[in-house]
Amino acid sequence: MARTEQDWxxxxxxxxxxxxxxxxxxxxVQEAISATLDAAPPGRLSAVSACSGQAxxxxxxxxxxxxxRDIDALLIELEPLNASFLHGALGSTALTSVEVLVADAGAAxxxxxxxxxxxxxxxxxxxxxxxKAALRTIGRLDExxxxxxxxxxxxxxxxxxxxxxxxxxxxxAGFAPVSLVWAADRSWLVSVHRFDGxxxxxxxxxxxxxxxxxxxx
Length: 217
Ligand SMILES: C[S@@+](CC[C@H](N)C(=O)[O-])C[C@H]1O[C@@H](n2cnc3c(N)ncnc32)[C@H](O)[C@@H]1O
Fold this sequence. Notes:
about 220 residues, alpha/beta, Rossmann fold, 7 strands, globular, binds S-adenosylmethionine
């Protein structure tokens, strides 16, 4: 069954349960973002979250972390209900440099003016695209990530079988692993990769990925 817009809103409900697998994974993502900010150079930083959903990962860190006010963030999310959630959540914070863009994060054009970023979040993306799209996306990360910038990403569901190929693609694209956290049963992976290469000029042409019709939870 293809997901409806309402489904992608409801997809976040397990994050509200302290004992859910998703909340356990989310805590590792938040720790990964926090550790990345701990190590970031002084000055303003840019962050982009592709398929941000309700940004349960990035927003709490921006609110709590001492560097949170130094971040100019773009949240790219296709589902308008999630965008409404984001606007509501942002309205109750003192954050003023977070932009919500209702757009297709699979379209290169959606990143206009915000890349290369110091921090790119791709959480839940590889879990919902096929390996071919994952490899194509990783092959263009040198346009999206600044030198010494970081990618925080997750995968799970059936796509966990592609994790070794995805990790190899990151290495081939000039990204070094900073941290890899696997679930005890290896059902999910939370990873941080640092870009050790030189950025290529961003092109607004083309498609990075499209979600599979049958998504992963
Ligand atoms: C698996 S959820 C991940 C949400 C969040 N990144 C997280 O890990 O908690 C995927 C999100 O991507 C959104 N989405 C799906 N296809 C998209 C696309 N092409 N561009 C932008 N957002 C998309 C969905 O609406 C959903 O909120």
